[in-house]
Amino acid sequence: MSSPELFPRAGFRRRFGSWIYDFLVAVAIYMVTTMIVSAIFNTLFAFELIGANTEQTASDYFATSILFKVILNCAGLLAIIYFFIFFWAKSGQTIGMKAWRLRVQNQDGSLMSKKTGIKRLLPTLLGLGNLLVIFDRKNKLSLQDRLTNTEVVVLTLEANRPK
């Protein structure tokens, strides 16, 4: 087995560009998830499986339902979490990372596991963990990189092409 290629670690600007792309994708994922959950709840309401004892319209019922809001937000958040963990474990690249030729990997160059992906999400702090890269110009490691022994590297054009 050959050793993995060595790529330079990514700086803040490239990470930030990727973050913007992935933020837009995450918003889209959240919106689609919201649409699906809302359609399910509207169907349940229409068949009177929920809200049967109320004179409210569906929109009024859902506007006041704490359970609906909790389920809606949790489903959206879980879909976004799944998006990041799936792509990080599968190829090391989200859509935004692919566009900016970035890959997240273990420091030995191997792809990280789903478990590492979960651990990486918490200290990411919605991308704020990357601010540490500004102050760590030598190592270019973010908070989440340090805590999970991972790194974000810049790929060559050739290495970024699909196989």
Short description:
Helices cover 60% and strands 6% of the residues.
Write structural notes for this entry.
- It is a single chain.
- This protein is mainly alpha-helical and 163 residues long.
- The protein contains eight helices and two strands, in the order ααααβαααβα.
- The protein has helices at 12-46, 58-64, 66-90, 95-99, 114-124, 132-135, 143-148, 157-160, and strands at residues 102-106, 150-154.
- A two-stranded antiparallel ribbon has the order 1-2.
- The longest helix is centred in the first third of the chain and has 35 residues, at 12-46.
- It is elongated, with a radius of gyration of 20 Å.
- The relative contact order is 0.18.
- The model has no long low-confidence stretch (mean pLDDT 93).
Question: How many strand elements?
Answer: 2
What is the alpha-carbon Rg in Å? Answer: 20 Å
Biggest sheet, strands in spatial order? 1-2
**Helix-residue proportion:** 55-70%
Largest sheet: 2 strands, antiparallel
The helix tally amounts to 8
Which residues sit in consecutive blocks of at least 5 with pLDDT less than 50?
none
Taken as a percent bin, the fraction of beta residues is 5-15%
Look at the structure and give the mean pLDDT: 93
Q: Which structural class do you get from the secondary structure elements? A: mainly alpha
Measured distance between first and last alpha carbons: 18 Å
* Basic shape: elongated
Order of helices and strands: HHHHEHHHEH
